[in-house]
Design a protein that fits this description.
Elements (H helix, E strand, L loop, with lengths): L1 H13 L4 H27 L8 H18 L8 E6 L1 H7 L6 H13 L4 E4 L10 H13 L5 H14 L1 H12 L2 E8 L1 H4 L4 H11 L7 E3 L5 H8 L10 E2 L1 E3 L3 H6 L2 E4 L12 E3 L1 E4 L7 E4 L1 H9 L7 E6 L2 E7 L2 E3 L6 E3 L11 E3 H5 L12 E6 L19 H13 L13 H22 L4 H26 L6 H33 L5 H7 L10 E14 L2 H6 L3 H21 L3 E6 L2 E6 L8 H25 L7 E16 L4 E6 L1 H16 L3 E4 H7 L3 E10 L7 E9 L7 H15 L3 H14 L4 H15 L10 E2 L4
Parallel strand pairs: 1-15, 1-16, 2-3, 2-16, 3-7, 4-11, 5-9, 20-22, 23-25
Antiparallel strand pairs: 3-6, 8-14, 9-10, 11-12, 12-13, 17-19, 17-20, 18-19, 20-21, 22-24, 23-24
Helix pairs in contact: 2-16, 2-18, 5-8, 6-7, 13-15, 16-18, 17-18, 21-22, 25-26, 26-27
Length: 794
């Protein structure tokens, strides 16, 4: 098994960087995409009860909260205001529950100031405990039959004016614009309420169900609803079995009713709100009832019942219409609240100020007033996406009402999470899974990293803009998770298998090139492991120590090794600094080249720079060795530029990156020629043509190297181009002397070269031509001599 694994691993490794590896990378991208599709489908189809992936849903919900906080406050309806039962009111009116005549006074003041609608996020299920009324009732009973009818009537009149429930009912009836709230109960809690009170309330409630249920495609709304809500619903039971009712006397006086049931998400945050709940009382038919907010909008806009309908499709609620509003809740009738901002985004007024009339008249004219508890002691605190510590439930209702009233405006209605958003999610999953997966399988890791960062940034912007401008909740977690997982999977795969190729690059080239060059080669390792070579123009350099045999004879083996190691180490460092490739050491000689494996358009320039750097460093070393009483060295350097064969040469078990060809041999011959002309560096005409603008050269001779028939012009590399003025006179005088030499004017040539030698005692070529001119004067060449000198040695 182990051998099989190694064979497979080896095959995959051998395929790294090839089409096979790219296919494997893309296969991984397909796998990641399929997993992402499965997770997305599971969470969407399982709804909010996909407990196994609840952590993903919680992260996604938190990402929605982040969008709210990033957006901040949005425009909201200034005609929606809140009157709060807050701490100041409790201090002045009395502890909670406060007397109901206080509510009556508030309703009177609001109605007097011209409020269009008053909505109670409140209910009154039990009669108020009033000791004065109880005492009057007992008095009436005790004097019954003994007191005159006038006295009994007076007691009853006083009792009537002291009954706060009747006082509140009278105010509600007089105002004629009050919508009361009630709380629907599930089966477990339905048995805990007063059955008689619920029955009495149902008499009033049954007159205000949702007016119309319209089936799409012949479905039964009740059956569809049962199917949608048959499992335990995260937002409470949407099939109510009981109701925490208002007193009959108050219900009869109110204009309408709506439920204020709200249930948080699994993390305790209130993001959704139900618009409908079904309720069946006893043997009566099951009916759908509107939320407090839905009914408030209907009453506020005076929408006729015939223009209100809920449409049911096979998968649940399709839409709710309150002409002109067309609402698209979830299939279970819940909506995602588009919160306008932090707590107190809507204008708040203390209840006690309204009771006492401490507000400018006209403040509530044509306003929709939502009344609710805002005192912490009453305990109606809610956690919203803005995560304010003091957010009260009454303001949630203000937000839902605002969403309905402005549902046709972009970014102001409910947050949309529908089929359209799901299709956009799937598009991004597909794009990040297959689209970018294909790119990752072909791009370099650095580009892949940049792509991930850019894609995440763009995607986050799209998600945020869709939310802030269009009220769309696009999934962020699964699509972005697909992107990151795709990148991580493919990158990890490449790190495992391509790292082997990089190690091979390092192992192959660490002896030949600098670490910086190796880092560049590692980016495309496959390129350097095919055996054989390619024809390419490079620059080759040979460097050799002069009279090394004589020097070595005067040194002990240890001294020789020490000298040679120090010299080779310093020269090799210079070669690496100039980004050259060390081909090999040949005894005391150094062979190097430029232009491969790392491509360099300026390879000739780098080779010349390396030769000059070697000259300078050798001068420094000689000074050091002289001070130490050690031997000093002189070197010769030959450089040639031309087509060579370069690549991995050798057997399947051992190979090296090297160069071969005639131009390599010429570079070696040029290094040997430096001895003939007593110069340090000789370059070919090809190198000269490439580098002459950057360096100082002088033409030395035209020669035929041993074993070759075609002549070559050779040049001495003198210095950097910036120092050309130091050599102008020497170059001009040498050129004049060389012209006389080629014209076979031997005496003139000897005279001119001698003057150069006198002026520049270290001029080796002048000395060489003086001796050669004497020889040719004594034994003249053929009459058709073209000035080319045939070298006698290699």
């Amino acid at each position: 098994m182990k051998e099989k694994f190694q064979q497979v691993f080896g095959k995959i490794s051998a395929a790294s960087g090839t089409k096979v590896l790219k296919r494997i990378d893309f296969g991984l991208a397909i796998l990641v995409t399929l997993v992402a599709f499965f997770i997305y489908a599971y969470t969407e189809l399982s709804g909010r009860n996909a407990a196994g992936l609840r952590f993903i849903e919680n992260i996604e919900a938190r990402s929605l909260d982040a969008r709210f906080n990033l957006r901040g406050t949005r425009p909201h309806d200034e005609n929606i205001v809140i009157v709060g039962l807050e701490e100041t009111t409790l201090q002045k009116v009395g502890a909670f529950p406060i007397p109901r005549n206080a509510y009556a006074k508030m309703v009177d003041q609001l109605a007097k100031d011209g409020a269009t609608l008053i909505v109670f996020d409140f209910n009154f299920p039990l009669p108020e405990k009033n000791s004065a009324v109880e005492a009057l009732k007992q008095l009436e009973v005790s004097v019954q039959g003994r007191a005159s009818p006038a006295i009994i009537q007076k007691i009853r009149e006083i009792e009537e004016t002291s009954d706060n429930d009747k006082i509140l009912a009278a105010s509600l009836k007089k105002a004629g614009n009050v919508v009361l709230g009630h709380l629907f109960l599930d089966a477990d809690r339905a048995g805990s309420v007063d059955a008689a009170g619920a029955k009495e309330y149902f008499g009033a409630l049954s007159r205000h169900p949702l007016p119309q249920l319209i089936a799409i495609g012949g479905v039964s709304p009740i059956q569809v609803w049962k199917q949608v809500t048959q499992e335990a619903h995260e937002y409470g039971d949407l099939n109510a079995s009981g109701v925490y009712a208002n007193l009959g006397i108050l219900a009869d006086a109110a204009r309408s009713f709506g439920f204020f049931n709200e249930t948080p998400d699994a993390d305790g945050t209130f993001r959704r709100s139900p618009l409908l709940i079904s309720y069946r009382h006893g043997d009566y038919d099951e009916q759908f009832y509107p939320s407090l907010d839905l009914e408030a909008v209907r009453q506020y806009q005076k929408i006729d019942e015939q223009n209100v309908a809920a449409y049911f499709a096979e998968n649940g609620i399709d839409r709710i219409e309150l002409d002109p509003y067309n609402l698209r809740p979830g299939h279970d009738g819940t909506v995602l609240v588009n919160y306008a901002g932090h707590y107190k985004t809507y204008k708040h007024y203390p209840m006690i100020d309204v009771i006492d009339g401490r507000f400018p008249w006209g403040t509530f004219t044509k306003k929709l007033v939502v009344f609710g508890a805002t005192a912490v002691a009453v305990g109606d605190l809610r956690t919203t996406p803005f995560h304010d510590a003091d957010y009260m439930g009454v303001e949630i209702h203000a937000n839902v009402i605002d969403n309905i009233l402005h549902s046709a405006e972009s970014g102001r209605g409910f947050i949309a999470r529908s089929y359209k958003e799901e299709m956009i999610d799937l598009f991004f999953i597909l794009a990040f899974g297959l689209g970018l997966g294909y790119w990752f399988s072909r791009a370099r890791p650095l580009w892949s990293t940049f792509s991930v960062i850019a894609a995440l940034g763009i995607f986050a912007s799209v998600v945020y803009l869709a939310f802030s401008h269009y009220g769309m909740w696009l999934s962020f977690v699964i699509p972005s998770g697909t992107l990151v997982a795709n990148y991580a999977t493919i990158t990890s795969f490449r790190m495992i298998f391509e790292e082997r190729e990089k190690r091979k690059v390092r192992k192959t080239f660490e002896r030949y090139v600098s670490p910086g060059v190796i880092a560049l080669l590692e980016k495309d390792p496959k390129k350097y492991f095919k055996q054989g070579g390619e024809s390419k123009e490079l620059t080759v350099m040979f460097s050799d120590i002069r009279s090394f045999t004589t020097i070595s004879e005067g040194l002990t083996p240890d001294e020789l090794v020490r000298l040679l190691n120090e010299y080779l180490g310093e020269m090799t460092d210079i070669l690496f600094r100039r980004w050259g490739t060390l081909d090999k050491y040949i005894g005391d000689a150094i062979m190097g080249f430029w232009g491969s494996p790392f491509p360099q358009n300026d390879h000739a320039l780098r080779a010349c720079a390396c030769a000059l750097d070697m000259r300078v460093r050798l001068q420094e070393l000689n000074m050091k060795w002289e001070a130490e009483g050690r031997k000093q060295l002189a070197i010769g350097v030959g450089i040639n530029t031309g087509e060579v064969n370069v690549g991995n040469m050798g057997s399947s078990k051992r190979f090296a990156w090297t160069v071969m060809g005639d131009n390599v041999n010429l570079a070696s011959r040029l290094e040997g020629i430096t001895k003939e002309y007593h110069v340090q560096c000789v370059v070919s005409e090809a190198t000269y043509r490439t580098a002459r603008d950057q360096y100082v050269f002088r033409e030395i001779d035209r020669i035929k190297v041993k074993g070759k028939t075609l002549p070559v012009t050779i040049y001495e590399l003198l210095d950097w181009g910036r120092n050309d003025s130091l050599y102008t006179e020497r170059i001009v005088r040498f050129s004049e002397a060389l012209t006389s030499y080629r014209r076979q004017q031997w005496r003139d040539a000897i005279e001119l070269f001698s003057k150069i030698k006198a002026k520049f005692p270290d001029d080796g070529p002048a000395e060489t031509f003086i001796h050669r001119s004497h020889e040719l004067m004594e034994a003249p060449p053929e009459s058709d001599w073209d000035g080319v000198y045939a070298m006698k040695t290699k």
